[in-house]
């Protein structure tokens, strides 16, 4: 009897991981994707509805009539102001790339829905889908950023007496830096959530024994 009592019997205890690691990641993905699609849709509507055109038109009207009887300096200032507003209007529409942004956002939303569904279902493939979603976000975001920065750089180059290289460097650095921080943060969350969601079978000692 003593030998039986002193025998340590291994018992398999299954530690279920918390479902909230996968669910939290799914919530982040769906919110990010929905807000991205919503923002692109609103921007698409505003640009194509002429909303921004009206703003720039009002800005031109605020300059008043061309000062035909004014001094040469007043006429020059009026021309420069008008050309500046006209240049902003044209470059603004080009830099927005509303069609491309809307298409990219819908693709990200579709992939995000798939990843979120798998994560809510606690399917192990959900974390791979989340990684694919982040890759799509990074690629499409990089493309739109590159196009926007290129168009804005052209706009800065057209401004006389303006140090475009300084502004271009600052805007590019901030854009790339903030994007990298955001992407790496989400990537880290995906990795941590995937690790924490793995189930582990641990062997623990039974309490039916004597020291």
Number of domains: 1
Shape: elongated
Q: Helix/strand/pairing class, anyone?
A: mainly alpha
The biggest beta sheet is recorded as: 2 strands, antiparallel
Question: What value does the average pLDDT take?
Answer: 78
> Percentage of helical residues?
over 70%
Spatially, the strands of the biggest sheet line up as 1-2
Total beta strands: 2
Q: Which percent range describes the beta-strand content?
A: 5-15%
Radius of gyration, whole Å = 29 Å
Which runs of at least 5 residues are low in confidence (pLDDT < 50)? 200-211
H/E topology pattern: HEHHHHHHE
Please report the number of helical segments: 7
What is the first-to-last residue Cα distance? 15 Å
Description of the molecule:
By secondary structure, this protein is mostly helical. It has one domain. Helix content is 75%, strand content 6%. Strands 1-2 form a two-stranded antiparallel ribbon. Helix 5 (98-120) runs antiparallel to helix 6. The model is unreliable at 200-211 (pLDDT under 50).
